[in-house]
Amino acid sequence: MYMPRSSVRYLIGAAGARTGEEMSGPALLLLGLAATGSISAGSSLLAALTATSVLGGPLVGLALDRSGRPTRLLAWLLVLYGVGLVALTFVLGAGLPLGWAVATALVVGVLGPALSGGWTSQLPFLVSADRLERVTVRDAMTFGVAALLGPALAAAVAAGAGPWVAVWVSAGCVVFAAGLARSLPVSSPVEERVRAGAQLLAGATVFLRSPSLLRATAVTSLSLAGTGMVVVCVPMLGERFLGVATHGAWLLSVMAVCSLVANLVLSRRIRAPSPDALILVCVLAQAGGTALAAAASSWVWVVAAAVVLGAAEGPQLSALFSVRHRHAPGYLRAQVFTIGASLKISAFALGAAVAGPWAEHSVVLCLALACGGQLLAALTHGVLSLRRPGSGAVAGV
């Protein structure tokens, strides 16, 4: 399929921003350890960076929705995020109490949804309606690329030049993406102006007023909580079946590669499947993959489980984006995507937090609970599908 230059710039920028975000996590963990000698310092920085995304989602989305030049605003938000990451290194390097660095991370984290939902919300203004589905799949693939490249780059740079430089390179990727965002020929359509407070409230409640958005968001959030539980179990699976806990990271790489391949296959289909049906299929596949990991008796079955999980993860994200593009009102589009990104981060973090104590007790039990979470997501899909049928489109306020 022919790709206009603007679409290519969009995808490169999205991959750059998301790679920088994926780098920042392990880089901050290593930086906290190097600066304080305690791994808990790094985990505190990472937790702070993600915690405020719940607040940032609605605010970043509202700002983009109300901007006459959203791509320029997006570029500035990305620059501020990159500068904030660099500022974190100087705060730690200055020998200030860890609380100052945590406070800095909390402020920077507010801008986090711009790297994911902020980018994707601009796509309908960039490509024609007949190209949107396929470009959306490619957009989702940038998350898989970032998941592969980000941690590997962070580890390589930290090993060669130190964790400080790894954080700077992470910030550089985000700032590079900002330059591409600034160059995008995207203009926001003229919408009827409403007060900021009313628009913020409308963005927060749009999921309740659109059956399709509510179903897709609820189901994928529950599914991501289950994924967070699986990720916590990965080191123990690596130790049990691959000999060393750190080899569990290879399972995450297998998942990322399979996610990319599945989305590549999906993008080449002449007729795309129904996004809503695809979400259900992917959730059921993830339940099966998680159950396979729990019942695995050798490394072959664990790798097979990773293949199934990854192959379902990528198309699920593509389908979620498609639902949002179809049913988000134009004047709330950015809020729908950034609030969705916040919920995704929060659900994953909640699943990981819940999994910790269970995984220490029994990794099989933890995986069984994760499988139950995926089945609960599938059940939620069925229950919410019983609601009064409708297009899911939301009228203006």
UniProtKB/TrEMBL annotation:
GO terms for molecular function: transmembrane transporter activity. It is a multi-pass membrane protein. InterPro entries: MFS, MFS_trans_sf. It is found in: Cell membrane. Keywords: Cell membrane, Membrane, Transmembrane, Transmembrane helix. Pfam families: MFS_1. The chain crosses the membrane at residues 28-61, 73-92, 98-119, 140-159, 165-185, 216-237, 249-266, 278-296, 302-323, 335-356, 362-384. The keyword Transmembrane helix applies. GO terms for cellular component: plasma membrane. This is MFS transporter.
